[in-house]
Design brief:
This protein has seven helices and 16 strands. By secondary structure, the chain is α+β, with helices and mostly antiparallel strands.
Length: 295
């Protein structure tokens, strides 16, 4: 049986402060965000009915809106509460949660200062998969043609929808070539990130990851850095050149969707997921497990 499309499902979506039936959560075709990319979002996850690092995501959503020159008219605490309400109303435990804020249809044109700012929150079932027997095989990723933009040419540190155009194109090309994702370089030709995940590499027992100054520094990325240091694994945030990729023994991706995903190869370079990757998969699985209050 085919899975229902995302516009044709049972359930509820929080839209501008109220719950609406899933199929009625619609916008006009002249919505500014559809034409000019004036929207921001967060990709979040719930485990066991509890949001993981919800407040950090809500705070980043607010900041992304400000970077895009608009103020989301709900405070962080209200956004956190709305996400929790969406989970409850849809009876979800392990789920993807997607808040999205955008400029509406009151004005059309490049300038749209008077367009209303809207906020919607949807959630759908998304079980986690931390089975080491499956995860440790790793995925193969390609090299992307597009590069992350110079931060002086785009709001590179916001989770802005328009920035993902080149990610979609790069992912599609990689998938057509038999890869799971694509590694993007930055505008100066240095290793940056994958299309929707940050990248880590292992060398001599230490983690190396690119400096996140022209792409989103993921909340999962920050979690994994903290977990690695807690395990006594050194972490170096630094410039990494493509020529160095052959020097590393392990590679993995991090992100809301990726969680901690081992990489078995980048283009023609092979990696063998090993002890550090396995330890961080386990540590992350433990970190996201809901903590129950003692009786």
């Amino acid at each position: 049986m085919a899975h229902p499309t995302f516009d044709d499902r049972d359930g509820w979506i929080w839209l501008d402060g109220r719950m609406v039936a899933w199929r009625n959560a619609k916008v006009h075709m002249l919505t500014h965000a559809l034409h000019y990319g004036s929207s921001v979002f967060e990709g979040e996850r719930a485990y066991g009915g509890q949001m993981f690092r919800s407040t950090e995501h809500s705070s980043r959503l607010k900041e992304s809106g400000r970077t895009m020159d608009f103020e989301i008219p709900w405070i962080v605490e209200q956004i956190d509460a709305a996400k929790a309400e969406v989970l409850r109303r849809n009876d979800l435990t392990d789920a993807c949660v997607r808040p999205l804020a955008w400029r509406g249809s009151e004005m059309i044109g490049v300038g749209a200062q008077s367009a209303a700012i809207h906020l919607g929150i949807a959630a759908w079932e998304w079980p986690s998969d931390f089975d080491p027997a499956h995860r440790m095989h790793g995925v193969r990723i390609d090299m992307a043609d597009y590069r992350r933009p110079d931060p002086t040419t785009a709001p590179a540190l916001a989770e802005a929808s328009g920035l993902y155009m080149i990610c979609t194109l790069s992912r599609h090309r990689a998938e057509r070539r038999g890869f799971a994702d694509a590694l993007m370089l930055d505008w100066q030709g240095r290793v940056a990130e994958c299309t929707a995940a940050n990248v880590f590499l292992v060398k001599d027992g230490a983690l190396h990851t690119p400096i996140a100054d022209c792409f989103l520094a993921g909340i999962t990325r920050a979690t994994v850095i903290d977990l690695a240091r807690g395990l006594g694994v050194p972490v170096f945030e630094r410039r990494i050149m493509p020529a160095e990729l052959t020097d590393f023994s392990e590679c993995f991706l991090t992100g809301t969707a990726a969680e901690v995903t081992p990489v078995s190869g980048i283009a023609s370079i092979a990696y063998k997921p090993g002890a550090i990757t396995a330890a961080l998969i386990d540590a992350y699985a433990e970190a996201v497990r809901p903590r129950r209050a003692a009786a």
